[in-house]
Amino acid sequence: MTTATLTRAGGSTATGAPRRGFAGRLADRFGGGVLQVGLVLLALFWLIPTLGLLVVSLRNEEANNASGWWHIFTAPAELTLSNYSNLLATGFTSSFWNTVFITVPSTILVITIAALAAYAFAWIDFPGRDALFLIVVALLVVPIQIALIPIARLYGALNIFGSIPGVVLFHVAFGLPFAIFLLRNFFVGIPKSLLEAARMDGASEWRIFTTVVFPLAKPAVASLGIFQFLWVWNDLLVALVFADTANQPMTKALQSQMRQFGTNVDILAPGSFLSVIVPLILFFAFQRYFVQGLLAGSVK
C-alpha cells in the first residue's frame, strides 16, 4: 500500500494513506460487477434509437402509422424485408456506393498526407517549420461555409464541379489541418532515442517513418480514421453543394426523399438504417484503437 507524507502547520509530518476523492470512493464501493452491469445497461440504452430505427425499417407503412415500433415484441409477424426491396428500386444502391467512393479515398488520403506532414513537423528541422505549423493550426478555425463559393468557382473552372473527385478533394483539404495537428502531437511523444538509434544504423527518414514512427502511431491513426470516416460519411452540406444527382451520396439521396415524400417512412427508415449501421460496425471494430488514441499522451 502506498503512503503519503502530510506536512502539518507546526512543521511535523504525518504518514498515512492519501485521501481519495468522492469519485474514487464511489468507484471502490460500486466497482466490479455492479459497475460493469451499469455500463452494459448504459450501452444498451444508447442503442435503443438504433434498434427502433431497425424495427421501423422492417415494418410496412400501415403498421408504423398504427403503432410504435415497440409493438413488434407482441406482433413479430409484422417484420418484412419489402421496405429494403422498395428502397433498392429507387436507385439507392448507387447512392450507397457513391458514399463509399467518397468516404474511403477521403479517409485514406487524409491519413497518408497528414502522417507524412506530421512527421516532418515533429522530427525534421527545416526553415519555417514552426511558422507553417502555426498556419496549419490557424486553419482549424476556418469554417467550411466561407469556402463554398470560392471553391465552387474553382471547380467550375477546372470542370470537376458535381463530380466525386471534387467532393473528395474538398473533404481532404478541410480534413488535413485537424489530422496534421493530431498526429504531430502524437509523433512528438515518441522517444527521440528510437529515431536517433535508427539514424545511427543508417536508416533514411522514409525508412524511419515507415518502420518506426508509423507502426507506433496505430492508435492515433485509427482514431483519426474513425473521425474522418464519420465526418465524411455523415456529411450533407458539401454533398448538397458539390455533388450532382448522378454522384450524390446517401445523405443527399435521403434529403431528396424527405422533400418529395415527407411521410414515406418505408423508404426513409431503411435508408437511414443503412447509413447508420456502417459507422457503427466501423466503430465497434476499431474501438480498442480508438480509446488508445484518445488516451495517447495523457500518461507519461
Features:
2 strands, 2 domains, two-stranded antiparallel ribbon, single chain, mainly alpha
Overall mean confidence score, pLDDT: 81
Number of domains: 2
Portion in strands: under 5%
Structural class, please?
mainly alpha
Return Rg in Å. 26 Å
The SSE string, one letter per element, is EEHHHHHHHHHHHHHHHH
Give the biggest beta sheet: 2 strands, antiparallel
CATH architecture of the largest domain: Orthogonal Bundle
**Count the helices. How many?**
16
CATH topology of the largest domain: MetI-like fold
Helical percentage = 55-70%
Name the overall outline.
globular
CATH superfamily of the largest domain: MetI-like
Structural write-up:
This protein has 300 residues and is mainly α. It has two domains: 39 residues, no CATH class; 205 residues, Orthogonal Bundle (MetI-like fold). It is 69% helix and 3% strand. The protein has 16 helices and two strands. The chain has a two-stranded antiparallel sheet. Helix 3 crosses helix 15 and helix 7 crosses helix 9. The two termini are 22 Å apart. The N terminus is likely disordered.
